[in-house]
Every structure is written in C-alpha cells, then in structure tokens.
Automatic annotation (TrEMBL):
Residues 180-278 form the CAAX prenyl protease 2/Lysostaphin resistance protein A-like domain. The chain crosses the membrane at residues 12-30, 42-60, 72-94, 106-125, 137-155. One of its GO terms (biological process) is CAAX-box protein maturation. One of its GO terms (molecular function) is endopeptidase activity. This is CAAX prenyl protease 2/Lysostaphin resistance protein A-like domain-containing protein.
Amino acid sequence: MNSIFRINLKPIGYDFVFITMGYICLYFYSKYASSNFNPIPISAAILVAITLIYIIPIGNNKNNYVYQNKNALYPFIMVYIVLLSSIFILNKLFSLNNSTVRNFNPVYLLIIQLVISASIFICYFFKIRITDFNWHISRKSFAFVIIVFIVYRFIFNFNDIISGIINIRQILNLEFIIDFALKAVINSVYPAFYEELLFRGLLISGLKGFELSNNTCNIMQAIIFGTTHIMSWGEPSCLEHLLALSIQIMIGYLLGKLYFKTNSLLPCILFHGLNNTI
C-alpha cells in the first residue's frame, strides 16, 4: 500500500479513548445540568478536527521543532499559580467570570489581561526566552488551520445553523467580518498567546524534557489546561462543574494535536483566537 495512506493507529487509539471519556463526562453533565446541553456536537467536532489534523498534509520544514527543556516546568508552575490566583481573586472580589465579563468596563478588562499576560515573562528568569519556541507558520499551515477551524465550528454549531439561529448571510456581511477580524486579533493576544505559550509552550517543553511521548505530554497538558477553567463560570458546583471541564480538556487536547502537527505555537494561537471570538 502506498506510504501516504499508512497511518499509525496507536495515537489514534489514544485519541478515540480520550474523546470517548470526554463524551461520557459531558453526557453525565447533560443529565445534571439545568440547561439542555447536548454533548454530541462538541465531541464530534473535536474528533473530526483531529482526524483532519492527521490526514491533511502541510509539508515538512527543517525549522519546525518542539522546544524541549525540563526547566521550563519551573516558570510554568509559577505562572500557573499566578493564573489560578488571579481567577480566584477576580471571582471572589469582583464576581468577574465568563458569565459576567460583558458587564465590565473594557478598559479595566484590558488592564487585567495585560497584567496577567505579563506574568508569562517570568520564564526569562529561568533563561528561557520566547524566541526559543518555534513561531513559524507557512501559507499551507495557515490554510490548514483555517480549514480545520471552519469544519470544527460548522459541526459544533450545526444544529444552530439548521434551526436558523446562526444566519450564514449575516456571517458574510462586511460589517460582521470586520468586527470578527478585530475581535479575533484581540483574542489572539489574550488569552490565546498567553495560554498557548503557557500550556503548549512551557508545559509541553518541560514534559518533553523528561523524554515523555507526544501522546503522554498531550494528555497531561490537556487535563492541566482544563483545570484552569474550574472557576471560569463562577463558583464551582462540585461534580457538575468538574464534568463540564471536559469541554476545555478536549479543546486543550485538540490544540495539543495541532501543536505536534505543526511544531509551532502560532497555528495554535490562530485557532485559539478564532475559537474564542465566536
């Protein structure tokens, strides 16, 4: 059989088991949640997106690499603590979370975002520079990310598109496109740049420094990435809230697959920024 169709089934097995476990968690969440949450669209969207990551070729680039340094775990831990502390304090003192963010002064939000983002530069104290990571993105990689994102969001929002809640004509409106582009740029700076450098950059680099496999690193970073969202929607409500974290964990897993496919942070930032804009 032609080598182009030879796919290593072992990592696919990891993917299937991981996404299945995520779906099961979301299924039970749908039983506990007060809203009519359907776990199928998000699970299917992520599974299809991962499949596209495997089968769409983007070519090899000699400059593409995954930075490996176990010392990267030290700044990661410090920044991770800063992030969790910030989320806790903002929730407790200002009731600021994903549900209330639209009610806050955008200038105050920008200041908060800049302060949190600045914490990432702790890595320089450990002699780890931003330039140590690969930021390359080719035209093929850019097109690849856009294709994966469009298919992912189409499946995720399929029911809303069919029911007419999402109007395709409104999406193609020039005013909407300009507004979307501006918001995508803002979201690509924060939280996309910050979170990608923290989790797909520092965390994966530190884990790879211990010679762990890509699949092991991806599973670990995805779970840790998901835990940062434990208070993102307000006070955690025990089991129900923990089950809901499966969404962020699976998205983190998808971003990890994208990182190992491209060996670059910029495609992950692009996907993350676009996803947060919708």
